[in-house]
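Retry 2 of 3 after timeout on previous attempt. Resubmitting structure tokens to design endpoint.
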């Protein structure tokens, strides 16, 4: 075999210690501790794109320019959104008040009235005062001496007409020889002779012709009596009408002057004037309601109509939305966007065994409260509520909000069928959500982009320059002051910046997920106080991060224990053919850690190609399957120029019992295949990560820091030899932000980290044998190289397969 100078090749690809972590020199700061800094006004750090979009979206006044704030949590999106909205709202006019009033023409359709901010409560009090004045004036008018005299005059006139009519009837009866007698049971008629009533016996003694005359006269008198009763009924009806008209005129004269001031006050509000006029006419029509005493209520009021108080309730005003104490436009952040919380509801009360309601039970929702201003919602909570998204879209599209009974059609509660008049809607809705929900709405709701035309996108990182580093220092100052933390030394701030770069896995960037930063700030201040320190120093930041990891690394410790006991078989020294250590990251986001995984391969003559054991066992994801197919493409491209590859191979992740996905181990799988085919051993003290394409070029992966640190801990556990290390893609060097312990080991030559950009470089570091991936003039790979041995093995397999098939 063509051996190479392993030390030389490893030195060529070794990453300098200075690139393993992006150190920040605290001496760059113009302060010693954050106490030397002023607290600057709230500013969104590192989110210039989002700031511009937010300003634009909030400033555009045209409809449908609602905002969807998208980005991961912890970036300050909620805080900045609310601060921006509140700031914008301060410079806008206070919107109108809204009142619901009784609809005298259709009680089931309450009317809505809008008034300038603060006048809704005034209007409500005016109507309350008016109601009291109406009852007072009506009682006074109907109990006055003048009223009684006029009423008596009408009654006396009626009585005189009745008496006169009866006299005429009695005279008619006398002229026809009959006497009329009025009794409680009716009218009795008696025949008379010589001015005296005749007895029955006397009548029977009369001649027959006289009897016949009396009978004819009796019939005439009866007809006259019936006519008289008819006329009296008409006069009684007329009397009733006259009395009713008189009393209504009395009521009108008594209260008309009470309404004039209100008509003058609200002359510029036609809807209010219409309501006042309807109010006036209804009072006149139902004046008796104001005259009933409480003692008489049970007798006078019908049970279905309700008590006097309930009936007078229709003259009150439901102050639906009151902006009297508001400065600027309203800002409502609805944390529980249920249907009724957003769109309002009509409440019910029990009455006579059933549920009843009226316009005073109409309650506003967040849309009503925020009308004329801003409504902020969380997408996750919004989309969990049934029918809410559909109703919100409908309200924005038609420009008004309708209060509906969600349960009316389902029959959960009996309802009185109230349909309040819709309220015009002028609002800007701001929804805050994740990328997933934004993409979901974009894909499945065609109305989404019509209604939410402004996307405010928050990034997870910002440039790591001095300007943003100073902004981070100001943020630390502000947060420490607000939360009562100790001041932070410049060395501590520098450590926070280094930690921020690790969070975003980019040496040239800082994380904008300030929620993660604040955890470290709080915990480091705790440890500093526990030591009795006056300020938080760099060692406190390091300790806080270490303690944070320690609280969440139970799974990692158990995994390492199993490796130490040999339950999980991982070798970190010695050479093995067809075996290599791959690297993976497991765990949650706040407790993820890297682990080495033994990957093995067996190659033999056949046509089945590369068998992915995980795929056959349904434990392999689509991306991992793709990575295996790429390996086939690489091998075919390199070694099947003249004949097909007669290869059967099985490859697996040993001792893994959970699904595997991702292509970060594809280069590792290619190394182990080449080792098995060339029968060249791989050094087990070197772990590998990185994906590969069909040309053998190494591609970057994620979680590089956790992978390196995880393998280092296993090597440390089994004993550092000075030859161990990790091979990573060259593109991942910029992502390195390793633990100080790893860097110290690298500096001491106990551990190594190499960067490569092609599979040939990695196989040389792993085996110490020249890759030989460049063909000679005859188109052959050098014989004593890895590629030469693989080509020879394929040729032998091809010949063997030909013999078998003969």
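Retry 2 succeeded. Sequence:
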């Amino acid at each position: 075999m063509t051996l190479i100078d392993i030390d030389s090749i490893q030195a060529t690809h070794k990453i300098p210690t200075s690139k393993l972590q992006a150190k920040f020199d605290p001496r760059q700061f113009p302060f010693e501790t954050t106490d030397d800094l002023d607290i600057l006004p709230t500013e969104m750090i590192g989110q210039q794109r989002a700031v511009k979009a937010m300003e634009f979206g909030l400033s555009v006044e045209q409809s449908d320019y609602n905002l969807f704030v998208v980005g991961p949590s912890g970036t300050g999106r909620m805080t900045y959104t609310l601060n921006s909205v509140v700031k914008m709202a301060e410079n806008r006019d206070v919107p109108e008040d809204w009142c619901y009033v009784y609809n005298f023409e259709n009680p089931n359709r309450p009317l809505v009235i809008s008034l300038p901010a603060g006048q809704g409560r005034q209007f409500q009090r005016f109507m309350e005062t008016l109601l009291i004045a109406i009852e007072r004036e009506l009682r006074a008018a109907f109990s006055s001496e003048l009223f009684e005299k006029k009423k008596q005059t009408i009654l006396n006139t009626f009585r005189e007409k009745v008496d006169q009519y009866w006299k005429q009837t009695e005279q008619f009866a006398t002229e026809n020889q009959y006497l009329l007698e009025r009794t409680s049971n009716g009218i009795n008629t008696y025949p008379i002779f010589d001015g005296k009533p005749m007895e029955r016996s006397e009548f029977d003694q009369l001649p027959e012709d006289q009897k016949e005359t009396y009978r004819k006269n009796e019939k005439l008198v009866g007809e006259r009596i019936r006519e008289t009763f008819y006329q009296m009924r008409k006069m009684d009806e007329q009397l009733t009408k006259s009395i009713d008209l008189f009393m209504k005129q009395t009521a009108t004269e008594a209260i008309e002057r009470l309404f004039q001031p209100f008509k003058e006050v609200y002359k510029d509000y036609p809807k209010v004037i219409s309501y006042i006029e309807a109010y006036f006419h209804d009072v006149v029509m139902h004046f008796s309601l104001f005259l009933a005493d409480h003692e008489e209520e049970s007798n006078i009021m019908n049970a279905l109509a309700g008590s006097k108080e309930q009936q007078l309730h229709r003259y009150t005003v439901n102050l639906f939305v009151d902006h009297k104490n508001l400065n600027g436009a309203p800002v409502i952040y609805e944390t529980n966007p249920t249907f009724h919380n957003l769109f309002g509801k009509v409440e019910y009360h029990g009455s006579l065994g059933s549920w009843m309601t009226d316009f005073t039970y109409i309650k506003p929702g967040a849309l009503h409260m925020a009308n004329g201003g801003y409504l902020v919602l969380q997408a996750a909570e919004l989309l969990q509520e049934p029918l809410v998204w559909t109703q919100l879209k409908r309200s924005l599209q038609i420009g008004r909000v309708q209060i509906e009974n969600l349960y009316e059609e389902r029959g959960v509660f009996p309802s009185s069928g109230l349909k309040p008049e819709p309220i015009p809607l002028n609002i800007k809705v701001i929804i805050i959500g994740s990328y997933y929900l934004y993409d979901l709405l974009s894909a499945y709701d065609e109305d989404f982009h019509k209604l939410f035309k402004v996307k405010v996108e928050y990034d997870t990182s910002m440039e790591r320059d001095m300007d943003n580093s100073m902004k981070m220092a100001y943020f630390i100052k502000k947060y420490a002051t607000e939360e009562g933390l100790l001041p932070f030394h410049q060395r501590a701030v520098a450590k926070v910046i280094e930690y921020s770069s690790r969070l975003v896995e980019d040496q040239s960037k800082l994380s904008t997920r300030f929620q993660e930063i604040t955890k470290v700030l709080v915990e480091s201040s705790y440890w500093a106080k526990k030591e009795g320190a006056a300020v938080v120093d760099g060692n406190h930041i390091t300790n806080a991060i270490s303690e944070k990891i320690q609280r969440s690394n139970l799974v990692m410790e158990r995994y390492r224990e199993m490796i130490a006991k040999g339950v999980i078989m991982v070798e970190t020294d010695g050479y093995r053919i067809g075996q290599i250590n791959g690297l993976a990251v497991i765990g949650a986001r706040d407790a993820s850690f890297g682990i080495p995984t033994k990957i093995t391969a067996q190659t033999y003559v056949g046509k089945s190609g590369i068998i992915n054991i995980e795929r056959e066992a349904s434990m392999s994801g689509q991306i991992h399957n793709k990575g295996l197919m790429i390996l086939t493409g690489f091998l075919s491209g390199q070694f099947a120029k003249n004949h097909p590859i007669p290869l059967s191979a099985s490859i697996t992740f040993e001792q893994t019992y959970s699904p595997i996905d991702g292509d970060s181990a594809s280069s590792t799988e290619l190394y182990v295949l080449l080792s098995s085919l060339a029968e060249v051993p791989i050094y087990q003290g070197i772990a590998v990560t990185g994906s590969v394409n069909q040309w053998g070029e190494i591609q970057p992966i994620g979680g590089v820091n956790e992978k390196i640190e995880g393998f280092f801990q296993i090597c440390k556990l089994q004993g550092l030899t000075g030859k161990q290390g990790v091979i990573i893609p060259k593109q991942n060097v910029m992502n390195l932000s390793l633990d100080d312990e790893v860097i110290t080991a690298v500096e001491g030559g106990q551990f190594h980290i190499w960067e490569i950009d092609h599979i040939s470089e990695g196989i040389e570091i792993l085996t110490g044998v020249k890759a030989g991936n460049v063909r000679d003039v005859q188109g052959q790979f050098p014989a004593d190289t890895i590629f030469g041995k693989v080509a020879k093995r394929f040729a032998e397999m091809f010949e063997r397969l030909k013999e078998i098939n003969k």
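Attempt log closed. DSSP finds 29 helices and 30 strands in the chain.
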